[in-house]
Specification:
The structure is a homodimer of 351-residue chains. Chain A has 351 residues and is an alpha/beta fold. Chain A has 3 domains: 61 residues, lambda repressor-like DNA-binding domains (434 Repressor (Amino-terminal Domain)), CATH 1.10.260; 134 residues, Response regulator (Rossmann fold, 3-Layer(aba) Sandwich), CATH 3.40.50.2300; 131 residues, 3-Layer(aba) Sandwich (Rossmann fold), CATH 3.40.50. Chain A has 13 helices and 12 strands. In chain A, the strands form 2 sheets. Chain A has a 6-stranded parallel sheet, with helices on both faces. In chain A, strands 7-6-8-9-10-12 form a 6-stranded mixed sheet, with helices on both faces. In chain A, strand 3, helix 8 and strand 4 form a beta-alpha-beta unit. In chain A, helix 2 packs across helix 3, helix 3 packs across helix 4 and helix 11 crosses helix 12. The N and C termini of chain A lie far apart (75 Å). Chain A binds a DNA duplex (30 and 30 nucleotides) through helix 3 and helix 5. Chains A, B: Keywords: DNA-binding, Transcription, Transcription regulation.
Amino acid sequence: MDPACAMAKGEMVRKPATLKDVAALANVSRATAARALNSYGYVGNETAQKVQAAAEKLGYRGNRLAQALRSGQLPIVGCILGDIQNPFFARIAHDIEVLARECGHNLVIGSSEEELGQEISLLASLQSLSIRGFIVAPTSADNNAHLKGLIAENVPLVLIDRVAEGIDCDSVVVDNEGGARKAVEYLIGMGHRRIGLLQDDMRIFTSRERMSGYRAALAAGGIAPDDRMVSVSQSTVEHAVDATIRLFSQKSPPTALFTVDSLMTQGALLAFRSMGISIPHDVSLIGFDDFNLATFTDPQITVVSQPVAEIGRAAARLLFDRLSGKCGKPQKLRFETKMIVRGSVSRRRDA
Amino acid sequence: MDPACAMAKGEMVRKPATLKDVAALANVSRATAARALNSYGYVGNETAQKVQAAAEKLGYRGNRLAQALRSGQLPIVGCILGDIQNPFFARIAHDIEVLARECGHNLVIGSSEEELGQEISLLASLQSLSIRGFIVAPTSADNNAHLKGLIAENVPLVLIDRVAEGIDCDSVVVDNEGGARKAVEYLIGMGHRRIGLLQDDMRIFTSRERMSGYRAALAAGGIAPDDRMVSVSQSTVEHAVDATIRLFSQKSPPTALFTVDSLMTQGALLAFRSMGISIPHDVSLIGFDDFNLATFTDPQITVVSQPVAEIGRAAARLLFDRLSGKCGKPQKLRFETKMIVRGSVSRRRDA
DNA sequence: AGACTGTGTGAGATCGATCTCACACATATT
DNA sequence: AATATGTGTGAGATCGATCTCACACAGTCT
């Protein structure tokens, strides 16, 4: 087919020049050409220049595939995140890409869409590319044989946003439990006792930790946990809308809501509007993860913010440290969160 | 270094099994093993099973690098966009990734950050990986020797969101000029005559087209273009804030503003708030490209929406059609835009 | 019996870059 | 003069998978 195409158009498919071509043009052997271009070993001055000129003329760029086959590694790092459409991950992906480029690497991005199966197959597919290392936000906190396999083969791995049980490697996370606890304690301090939680799938590490912060704060406040106050949803605006509506259609709905990520916070906002629930008058709202939108609404949304700008860079730096041969114990970074009080929480008197 | 690490920990670095290993375990030659695993040519029944078993046992996964070196192509497609953090591109990247995966390919993402130099070096670096094809949103409408080079080497290329002069290849864009014209005509119809334009760098194709739609509408409305009504900014929220402030700090500022993308629209919103300008009372606003936020504000923002969900998929489909050998003239898809009237534009009486 | 066809297998070349080794020639050292 | 050292170069092996070719043996046909 393809050749047929080319023939039909009468086109010459110009193949990229190889080292052999360069060597031939410069009248030297491949070995000498390689020496001249990579400047190692002994090469005569004139010879080197001849080779350079020939390479220039042919527009020679080394075939990284062939280089990689010998060296065993492609200058690519892989990155598997939950969903690039989540601004949190988009930011991280962007930062990783920038740092990778600085280190002369390209970035392959895969989206697990929070499906373990997808994460596994993506990883396998990238591994067969002899990719040098990975940054992964694992879908599941405990189902992680595939990650263990990576470690066993000594492939550098950095976990990001989430860690996985029994996986001993570099990681970058935030203090999810502490952040969630601060948020819920704040709500309790404002007089709320029926505090809703809009959370993600419990397989996900952050979801677990944030849930446990929520529970801890309730316990500290002397409030009994109540399953009717908890709604689970996938992390998309649409699903969060539904989950919020379910939560607030009960006979005695929460007076405050804590949402575990920014897409859910947005979903809750939309749901509240469609239900005619006003913030902070009828319901108080506080979300984990800050987002652009948070300051556009009226009132602005109070959030627990994460140092997004640092997470991706930190993970990338850890990865490239390993790639450049750094040994030593896995580093486990944990960033602090910060509560940003805006206007979406009000004091409750009647409770 | 690396071996030192391994030795220090006393670890065996288990190398992935090769075909040779499999062949040895199965007591056959590499050729036979290859035949058994890829099912071509003649292979005896027992032999095939022996090989399968051996492969299974060793956890053999072919080295795609080696395969690619022979075949000349890696099952990877590249994608160079302006900025993954722009939700428009994030959505596109996501859709391309999904389709690529369906087609058994991985996706390398690069961000040009709207720098021509970065686009060029990224492309070169990906090309040396023998990547099979590219989807690019070119930074510049006319500076495109690097894209010509791609075409000359017969590397499949699909332009997305933007086309480039003199580049004859598949492309997917929207009707920027028409969309912009509709928006501005709508403003004119609502009685506005001092209509501001907050636009991106003129190197960028969409910026040119939207600008020309803006001009066309003004002309049709009998309004003389006025440079003081136009402000240029990079496509980030922060830059757009500044540009908006400049535009509206004049003695006789616009009564309406048309912004050429969603990040700029958000920037304008922030700027208006900080300046105490109320929408739509003081100023009317209409933006190109819909965004989540648009329905969260009060009033909601009127926009010209693009069929984002289709653009990425369409581009990916074009690319994979080419990769599977489809010949024929380049297809140039152009999607229609749709104006979504919400509440950010008001009728102006005193004009 | 001799010439075929069909089936199954292995040896070796290939893709492109790199690296080890051997060799050649110069100059310097004893 | 004989040996060492330094400089420059090419032949060939290597990475791993694939593919062409040659060969071997079965069975079939004249």
